[in-house]
Design brief:
With 356 residues, the protein is α/β, with parallel strands linked by helices. The chain contains twelve helices and twelve strands. Bound molecules: S-adenosyl-L-homocysteine.
């Protein structure tokens, strides 16, 4: 049986080759081709003998995603729609900022979580991505954006940061997402530092303990979006299964175990969760945690819910002010790539995503 090349952990290559009666010393050459030259086609691995390339094609296929669409925003943000082998598609966004190049990758096609303001979830889940499809999104960005200047020393990767904040819920596709991140983090692979990789979850509580037990230093973001269960359950159905207290306890345990501070995402929706009372309640609620950060994100309006709108800037700033005065480390995020349909799931919808 063949194994896609982009789902092999760098340290496993030797054993896999030996298991197939192939010479293990080729592992180093393979890793060089995959994660220093970033080839997307074994025919380009010209350092390897031709018959060996044929073996690799059959045993460890490379199936890069195809670029279906690309929109570039004035601020440099580029949103890509990538086609997968079975005809499905996923979005990924590349965001340049002050010496950084951050990529936002998807973990699923569509999403089952049904958060009301999210375009990805509006048509439900189609399927989870395989690890090689998550790694493939990074390889596609590498092929498009790497220049001699921006390739990082040692690994040649152009990205400095990765966030799993695209389509899908990473903890609903835990194993494949983690495998992909371990490959991207591997020293002999793309060598992207764990502290430069952020997983964002809507709050699937069992995922927290699993991630803490991995002993890796990934950053964890949690989509909170409301200060109480009544409101959060209306915005995020997942809250009915894992309400806020349980979620915050899981966050506190994660911080205790890993030493990593959790960041809460809070999307501000006009007249829904943006009041001063909401900000005060949130500040009180977060006292349950020894330490945390908050990212406020003004809503990016979505077509399926025209009733949900972005609050005025003065309201955003007032919300920020309450949290800052409560000594909570808070950032008000500027929306990036607005003119590139960069809100979660929007580009795929514009292309007429298939309903599951
Ligand atoms: N499922 C994961 C990761 C994907 S969504 C999660 O829920 O965290 C990444 C972030 O974008 C989440 O915080 C999500 O709630 C937010 N988001 C989704 N749609 C949005 C929109 N229209 N405007 C602003 N933020 C949005």
């Amino acid at each position: 049986m063949s194994t896609p090349a982009w789902r092999v952990l760098p340290d496993e290559w030797k054993g896999l080759l030996a298991g197939r009666g192939l010479r293990p010393f080729r592992a180093d050459q393979i890793l060089q081709c995959l994660y220093r030259d970033y080839i997307q086609d074994w025919d380009l691995a010209t350092t390897l003998p031709k018959d060996f390339r044929e073996t690799l094609k059959a045993e460890f296929p490379l199936a890069p995603p195809t670029l279906l669409d690309r929109t570039d925003a004035a601020d440099g943000t580029a949103k890509l729609l990538l086609g997968l082998a079975d005809g499905e598609s996923v979005e990924t966004v590349v965001i340049p900022a002050k010496g950084r190049l951050t990529q936002c990758v998807s973990s699923q096609v569509g999403c089952a979580m049904g958060c009301v303001f999210c375009a990805s979830g509006s048509a439900g889940l189609v399927r989870s991505l395989a690890a090689e499809e998550i790694v493939g999104q990074v390889m596609a960005a590498q092929a498009l954006f790497a220049t001699p200047e921006n390739r990082r020393q040692g690994s040649g990767l152009c990205l400095t940061n990765l966030v799993v904040m695209g389509m899908g819920e990473p903890f609903a596709n835990y194993d494949e997402t983690l495998l992909a991140l371990k490959i991207l983090n591997a020293g002999r692979g793309p060598n992207l530092g764990a502290r430069h990789i952020t997983i964002s979850t809507c709050g699937i509580v069992p995922g927290f303990a699993r991630l803490a037990a991995e002993g890796l230093q990934f950053e964890l973001s949690v989509s909170l979006h409301a200060p109480n269960d009544e409101l959060r359950s209306r915005l995020m159905p997942v809250n009915r299964r894992w309400p806020i207290d349980e979620l915050l306890d899981a966050c506190a345990a994660y911080t205790r175990q890993t030493g990593r501070v959790v960041t809460f995402e809070y999307t501000l929706v006009r007249g829904v969760n943006d009041s001063r009372a909401c900000a005060e309640e949130l500040a009180r609620r977060l006292r349950r945690l020894p330490d945390c950060k908050v990212n406020l994100i003004p809503l990016s309006p979505v077509a399926h819910r025209p009733d949900l709108q972005t609050p005025d800037e003065s309201v955003q700033l007032a919300f920020l002010d309450v949290l800052m005065k409560a000594r909570i480390q808070t950032m008000l995020r500027r929306s990036r790539g607005k003119d590139a349909s960069a809100a979660c799931g929007q580009l795929r919808l514009r292309h007429g995503a298939r309903r599951p």
